[in-house]
Amino acid sequence: MGKSVLIVSYTFPPSTNVGGRRWSKMVHHLASAGNKVHVLTATPNEKSEYDTSSKDGITIHRINGGYPEILANYKISSFVQKVKYALTVRYLNLTNKGNIYDKSVCWKDALQAKILEITRRENIKNVIVSAPPFQQMHYVAELKDKHPELNIILDFRDPWAEHADFSKFYSLSDERMRYQLQIEKNALDKVDTVISISQGITEGLEKVLGKASDKFVTITNGVDSSDYNFLKNLPVSSDDKFRIVYYGSLYPRTEDNLEALVGFINRNMEVLKKANVQFEFCGHVNDSGLTILQKAEPGFIVYHGVKPYKGALQILNGASMGLIIIAKDHEDIQFNTKLMECMALHKRIFLIGPDGRVGRFLEENKIGVRFSNETIGDMLGWITDKNKLNSLSYENFDLSLFEYSNLAKQVEALLK
Question: Is the pTM of this model over 0.90?
Fold first, then answer.
């Protein structure tokens, strides 16, 4: 007999934001296995409406997240917009203790009420909340105080307050940082199970809790092979370029890696030109990153900008190599969608970044090789030596371990 579960995912299709991908895949496999699945999200439907709809054994409840639109607008230019932005920031700072740039910060009352409504009406015991945004984890964990019968599971796609890049991006005050750390620790302590996408994140969360516990489990990001079926009917480029493709948005603090890459290109122009090498970036690159890439000699770097999902996959599918760039302190945690897409398309991978779990994973499985900023010159040997390059292969790599169909079984085992 199947189980019942409510999944809280602030972002969910039709939004194309990467935050909704993990659970949009999981829910279909959970439902097809006979479980009763409900989803609660702050994403409206295709008509920009908030409603409840059911299809294929999945019921999706859409409620407004309440986050001020002006704070989600990255292109503020007019005087009126600037005044509205400043007033909104001031108001939220007065009414909230934590990170006001966390999009779930205004969701508490509506979220808790809706969870209780759905779980009571549908007799659901299992509640999974996936983050970021993170504040919602605190709100859901609070329900354990009055409703201990709920089996609450937190799913971390990124670290929370314990990781500088994710917690201090908006320069939180010391007081607000202490509050974030406090509510994270409280949430970890209250809930039944904590999932994270990498062992590096799992170990960081264990340190935050500060005591031994068997509640932590790692369930990686995944792939859905059916996503790539459309590529089978598309023509493959007949040119002889050696295309090294970075797929997806660049994380902050990768400027030093880009400087190293551009320096490598400019020092080895003649050899790279003879090998017909082209580096390509498909996804968001901030202004500072673009400025650095423009320092490369013309013809070696192509920037495609942000493309629709299928268009971006088509570019990656035509690559000779995938390119992963990892900032310092991300080397143990960045088992992200970029990596999974490269693996799904069997792209051998060049990684630029510090030594860590991600690089060791690639090299131990012989599907990729890592270069630091200092050793990036070694990339030239891999590009020009076919025997060396051909030592990287997916022939003995078991991709099925990362299929969402298998990952969903791991989730199902946590349900009551």
Answer: yes
